[in-house]
Amino acid sequence: MVMNPEKATFDGGSIINPIERPSVTQELSENVILTTVDDLYNWARLSSLWPLLFGTACCFIEFAALIGSRFDFDRFGLVPRSTPRQADLIITAGTITMKMAPALVRLYEQMPEPKYVIAMGACTITGGMFSVDSPTAVRGVDKLIPVDVYLPGCPPRPEAIVDAIIKLRKKISNESIQERGQLRQTHRYYSTTHNMVPAPMIHDGKYLQAETRVAPPRELAEAMGLPIPGVLEAEKEVIDRG
Amino acid sequence: MAEEKQAAQEAPIVEAGKTSKWLTEQGFDHEFLGNDASGVEMIKVDAELLIPFCTALYANGFNYLQCQGGYDAGPGEELVSFYHLTKVSDNADKPDEIRVKVFVPRDNPKVPSVFWIWKAADWQERETFDMYGIVYEGHPNLKRLLMPEDWVGYPLRKDYISHDFFELQDAY
Fold first, then answer.
1. Contacts of A51 (CB under 8 A, 6+ apart)
2. Which of A41, A91, B113, B162 matches a 20 to 30 Å C-alpha distance to A155?
């Protein structure tokens, strides 16, 4: 198709060799973003990664420094949440003992999908210095819950936590909605089937009002009431007056 | 010269401390264990006599149980429950201190509780029970403090063997 370039005009001007740069295409490229739903969705998610306020030992001191203005993790969209229901990420900052383990697993279970775990510090990776001879420290938090990023250090510096979060952001940006089916709540950690029996709550808040705290048992009261020499009783009176 | 020095080290003459002498004067027989590194006198008391001793010491002005704890004297040896007492008062300058130790057999470790004299003994005795299995008779709420309540064994005893739980096995 042959066109006469001399006759082709647009808006009173010539299309060929216009007097200024073509504005339509320019504005289009500035105002239209071409992306995939995956990328957009992942970008939104990784930019508002809300961590659970969870800390059991010295690692949390470093994590708390990250909250402050010097390291400022709000710039990554990290807003600490105090309830697992609103959190996307749990950073296990500190040693996990066997007494703490059920609480940690329950917190993890209560978080909504998709959820991520950063194992922070040597204690939560292998047990750290407690892996030698401790009767209770859990040797690696990955025995309890699945871990996405291992962050070594004892404790790691706040910059290292930032690095772990950037690595986690990269991981999130690679995910796809097509794989969403794999994100369903499943049983992802080791446990055994149990036959537990419901038992009455023993932590009833009446610790100090317990009957056993009112008076000593008879034998002890008798032992404490043993006659003591007169000198002592005189001294006791002085103390009472003072 | 060196031999004389050695002989002097072998049989040091330990003079009983002030509070120990006072206790003896009042008719409380006990064994004086010497002073520790910071000069605190230590005495050994039978478990049955602990409450009369503590009542007397409280009457003497030891109104503060600074620390209560336990230790294992060694494999197959006795368990020890100790009580570090001091006098708290206004403008105190180097107040008297004393450490009372009770040695109990490890197959039947029973000590009367001093909770009714010093309330501070509450959690400390629970911790000692938790770690060494020393039973404090007369304690208002003697159950495990640090370990899970259904734990088996007392972890700080020298002869304790760790369980082979999955969580406690080495990580790879």
1. A78, A80, A81, A87, A88, A89, A90, A91
2. B162
Please report whether residue A116 resides in a domain.
yes
Closest CB to A127 among B55, B137, B171: B171
As a whole number of angstroms, the longest Cα–Cα distance in chain A is 130
Q: What integer pLDDT is reported at residue B34 of this predicted model? A: 86
Query: Who among A140, A224, A239 is closest to B55 (CB)?
Result: A224
Chain A to chain B Cβ contacts (< 8 Å): 92
Residue-wise pLDDT tens digits, A18-76: 777 766 666 777 788 888 999 999 999 999 999 999 999 999 999 999 988 999 989 99
Does residue A20 belong to any structural domain of this protein? no
- Report angle CA B110, B58, B114 to the nearest 5 degrees: 25
- Give B70: exposed, middle or buried? Use CB within 10 Å, 0-12, 13-18, 19+: buried
Q: What is the pLDDT of residues B76-88, one digit of tens each?
A: 899 999 999 999 9
Q: Tell me if residue B71 falls in helix, strand or coil.
A: strand
Band of pLDDT at residue A230, cut at 50, 70 and 90: very low
Is A224 a domain residue?
no
How many structural domains does chain A have?
A: 1
Residue A106 falls inside a structural domain: yes
Average pLDDT (B29-35) is 88
Indicate the residue of B63, B116, B148 with minimum beta-carbon distance to A220.
Answer: B116
Q: Do B59 and A142 touch (CB under 8 A)?
A: no
Residues of A with Cβ-Cβ distance to B146 under 8 angstroms: 99
Question: What average pLDDT does range B16-43 have in this prediction?
Answer: 88
* pLDDT tens profile A120-172: 999 999 988 998 888 899 999 988 899 999 999 999 999 999 999 999 999 99
Residue A130: give its domain's CATH number: 3.40.50.12280
What is the pTM assigned to this prediction? 0.75
> Pairing between strand A13-14 and A9-10?
antiparallel
- Kindly list the residues from chain B whose CB atom is less than 8 angstroms away from the CB atom of residue A235: 59-61
Average pLDDT over chain A, rounded to an integer = 82
DSSP state of B37: T
Q: Does B60 touch chain A (CB under 8 A)?
A: yes
Structural domains of chain B, with CATH: 11-168 (3.30.460.80)
Mean pLDDT of B23-43: 89
